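_Backbone structure tokens_
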Amino acid sequence: MRFTTDPGKNDSAGCCGRCSDEALHAEADLAGGRLIAPQIDRTLFGRRFKNPNPGFEDPAFSRVARWLIERFCRDGRTSSFGMLRPLRTSAAVSSPTERLEALMRLTNGTLTSLTWIGHSTFHMQIEGLGVLTDPVWSPRVFPRVGPQRVFPPPWSLEQLGRIDLVLLSHDHYDHLDLPTLRRIGPKPLYCVPLGLKPVLARAGLCRVQEFSWWDTLCIASLRVRCVPAQHFSVRGLLDRNATLWAGWCLEGRQHRVYFAGDTGFYQRQFEEIAKVCAPIHAAILPVGAYRPRWLMGPVHMDPLEALEAARMLDARWLVPCHWGTFKLSDEPLDEPIEVLGQALRDGSSGRCRAWLPVPGQTKYLAG
């Protein structure tokens, strides 16, 4: 589907302005079987989504339980989720929005900015719109008992200025943080994968548009495209894979930014995203929470896989995310960026360059 909206108008449901169902662009003709689509099972509990990769191995609860027991026996109760040294944060005195406004005046509005808040949360300015990805400002990613945040958010929500668009990749607590979404409030448009609209509605957020893979939404001069990811969803005891997971591509007149959300490495997925979304100026790819590989491998890329994905996407810049903020797996918090940095020094990145941000740092894409 392709949707069109005027950001200045809302429909009676408060969803996303004027929306009309049309056939997706020819390059995304699913009826022709040219692009991958999520698979769907009908069960006694309702619709369940599946990854199209025939080699995908779901991280079932029994496998997660095995990992937790092994880690408890190896490391003890507290050490495996213990905090490491905090990352250095940006020492800039002005907010990303203030700096961007000054630079926009110098570049006639053609600048795009990316600011890393932590984990998978980025603040972007693109085509004059303020965008947040998987916003998490909470101190823990699961109420009271989840892993604790290692460093505080470098910018408050208020410092970011107007937020027009919020992109959510899936329902896991380290990506869909309802306390943060309630703070952001109902004014932005929330773009979510299939099945998540009721979750946000229960939090009082009604400007929500659901997407399947390859659906698009046009907001003025910005096209928002939902793209595939290899992952899974679960938020409660009986809702495993009841909602879809996805990445996003923001396509403006000057720049295209791909946000992968959470994903394992699937070659066909990245080949098709490159074909439909090129040229990609910045690819925000997850690089952390990848050990042990027998459990995390299908759903989380490691740094070298992220580098390979960036090469397949022919991205100008690799921007790592999903690391250094919450202790979610066995590798040290700073290992992903060290491995990635070493690969870059070894010349393994090809034409792709990488921006390795500290929290609160902003990158500008010009020209």
